[in-house]
Amino acid sequence: MVYIVSWEEFVDRSVQLFRADPESTRYVMKYRHCDGKLVLKVTDNKECLKFKTDQAQEAKKMEKLNNIFFTLMARGPDVDLSEVTGKEQMETQPVKKGRGRKQ
């Protein structure tokens, strides 16, 4: 098991690992509240990549990685990932105005 220090390197190598063998690649998240640590693991039973952090800012980046993996799984491993961002889902949802009755 390899702990990768750089977030960008972890994302790049994880995407490469998924594209090489999408049928057997798994993505696991583990959060320990008592320690405040988040561990992300991507494996294909041959190679295992891990990223560990206790920084809240890096935990926010996990949403973007989730969107990347969802896109790869839904559209296939050959999709262009340049348009995938973590805020696409929030921008497309309609904005609700108030809770009262319509007048």
UniProtKB/TrEMBL annotation:
Residues 6-66 form the SRP9 domain. It comes from Eutrema salsugineum. GO terms for biological process: negative regulation of translational elongation; SRP-dependent cotranslational protein targeting to membrane. The keyword Ribonucleoprotein applies. It comes from the Eukaryota. It is found in: Cytoplasm. InterPro entries: Signal_recog_particle_SRP9/14, SRP9, SRP9-like, SRP9_dom. GO terms for cellular component: cytosol; signal recognition particle, endoplasmic reticulum targeting. Residues 81-103 are annotated as: Disordered. Its main location: cytoplasm. GO terms for molecular function: 7S RNA binding. This is Signal recognition particle 9 kDa protein. Component of the signal recognition particle (SRP) complex, a ribonucleoprotein complex that mediates the cotranslational targeting of secretory and membrane proteins to the endoplasmic reticulum (ER). SRP9 together with SRP14 and the Alu portion of the SRP RNA, constitutes the elongation arrest domain of SRP. The complex of SRP9 and SRP14 is required for SRP RNA binding. Keywords: Cytoplasm, Ribonucleoprotein, RNA-binding, Signal recognition particle. Belongs to the SRP9 family. The keyword Cytoplasm applies.
